[in-house]
Specification:
single chain, alpha+beta, Arc Repressor Mutant, subunit A, 3-stranded antiparallel sheet, 3-stranded mixed sheet
Length: 141
């Protein structure tokens, strides 16, 4: 028997936004509810916009992009750039890396301990390494 996806309530979305230091506008609430209702996922701005339109939420693609970037800045999402024209937004903010399935255009998680990065350069004076992102590109043979 398949379980119905857990719905994120408006109160939960509002609390999550406030906790991240964001003002819970109507559009932010609606997009947060879509983003976080089905557990961890990777999606593009276009995919989230499509979900919003399908749910009857009136929001422009530009607003979706702006909101995703605000959520990323607030620590609610990670942005994963797979090429100069495509970014995914990841609801799982715990340290991990990704497989990018080039044939299908999808991103999947690699658990944190499965990749080790050695030989990191010394960062420039006055800076520190914040994060190292690894995207392993795969394709069917």
């Amino acid at each position: 028997m398949r379980r119905k996806p857990k719905e994120l309530t408006n109160e939960t979305a509002t609390a999550r936004l406030r906790q991240a230091g964001l003002r819970p506008t109507r559009q932010r609430n609606e997009l947060a509810k879509l983003l976080f209702r089905n557990g961890h996922r990777h999606l593009t701005a276009e995919a989230l916009h499509g979900e919003a339109v399908a749910e009857g939420i009136k929001v422009s693609l530009a607003t979706v992009y702006n909101t995703l970037h605000q959520f990323t800045q607030a620590g609610l999402l990670l942005q994963v750039v797979v090429d100069p024209t495509r970014s995914y937004f990841d609801t799982n903010t715990v340290y991990h890396q990704h497989f990018y399935h080039e044939d299908e255009g999808i991103l999947t998680d690699i658990p944190g301990p499965d990749i080790a990065v050695d030989g990191l350069p010394t960062p420039p004076p006055g800076t520190e390494i914040k994060r190292v992102d690894v995207v392993v590109r795969v394709r069917k043979h």
